[in-house]
Amino acid sequence: MAGNTTTGHAGGDATARILEWYSRLYSRRVDLVGDFAGSERFLVHGESLLLQCFSDRQLDFDPGYQLLHASYAVEKFLYGLVSRRCNFHIAFFDDDQDLCVPQGASPATREKYLLARAAIIRHLQVNLQTSHSDIEVNRFSSTSSDTFADYLRSTDIYFVLCHDGASVKDLRKRALLQKELDVLQDEEASLNDRQKTYKSSFRTLIYGFMQRGYSTALINGLEWQDTKVITTILEHSRKMDIVIPVSVILVLAIYEDLSITLYCLLFYSKTASYERFRRTNKQCHNFAGATVPANSNSDTEICRADPRDQS
User: Fold this and answer.
1) Could you tell me which residues are beta bridge partners of residue 160?
2) How far apart are CA 113 and CA 115, in angstroms?
3) CA distance linking residue 260 with residue 258, whole number of Å
């Protein structure tokens, strides 16, 4: 009992120190291509990419299940990077898989997001290699795994594109449209706890990358401006002496049923609506081989929020 209490206090202290450290980080808004990275290769954190795209207000996972739209949102974001000549790899981490579930999602929809994650990873691994062989889509057990360490040693990575866990806009508005006021009051404390968990998890992740010497660019708040990719850059600090206990790292159950994933991919690839989506936007179809919703907005619709302005 005493040991657990000590570990809990150590974990809480480390989390508080990381959040304080993050609030004092030096940041600047730059063009990733023209002002910061140029042609240097960077790493896209897969769960951050999915969280950003799954947070699209037009995506319906409750009560619907717009897997096709979710796949398109991911493709469209990646196409925005490719069309601006960004050089990047993508890495997914099974221990972080629950971080792709939006903060405002109901617990009942968790499996929908995890199934979408599995389907999208498989889709990118199969189709992206044929159209863009220089973009690797890797999957690791965790950021602390030996295979990921070997990957970093063998691959020149300039920085990591990652989410920082800032609150997603319009969660309260969406909840008000769907729930009664008394239910909202009961869930407010739970939502606040989840937001704190996301912040501590993502910012601990950022701290871990910076301990390894990598700066971080925020995927939330990224904007497309003509040929520019504008986002916030967080420069790694010199003093990185916080010891992160295992209890601080968010370890989540691995969820994936490959047979269901393959079934979903086959089902969506054979529908008549899929053929209509293909004809709607050939650029994104050629990019990764699938899925363009007919009622989608311009590429500036995704990822507009400035996370540094949010608590």
Assistant:
1) 43, 216
2) 5
3) 5
Q: Ramachandran region of residue 105, left (φ > 0), alpha (ψ -120 to 50) or beta?
A: beta
Which uninterrupted H or E stretch holds 82?
helix 67-83
Question: Residue 141, SS3?
Answer: coil
Distance separating alpha carbons of residues 271 and 255, to the nearest angstrom: 26
User: Which residue matches tokens 């989540």?
Assistant: 252
End-to-end CA gap in the chain: 34
CB-based contact 50:287 (threshold 8 Å):
no
Place of tokens 């240097």: 40
Closest by CA position to 75, among listed 302, 287, 270, 265: 287
pTM: 0.73
CB-CB contact of 264 with 111 (8 Å): no
Provide the 10 A C-beta neighbour count for residue 287: 21
Q: How far apart are CA 276 and CA 207, in angstroms?
A: 44
Domain boundaries in the chain?
Answer: 25-306
Positive or negative: CA dihedral 127, 294, 105, 12: positive
**What's the pLDDT score for residue 127?**
92
Separation CA 279–CA 294 (nearest Å)? 9
8-22 pLDDT tens trace: 555 568 888 899 899
Query: How sure is the predictor about 280, in pLDDT bands with cuts at 50, 70 and 90?
Result: very low
31 membership: H or E segment, kind and range = strand 27-31
Round the CA-based radius of gyration of the chain to a whole number and report it. Answer: 19
Sequence-ordered strand ranges (E) for 100-183: 137-140, 159-162
Confidence of residue 252 (pLDDT cuts 50, 70, 90): very low
What would the mean pLDDT of 202-229 be, rounded to a whole number? 94
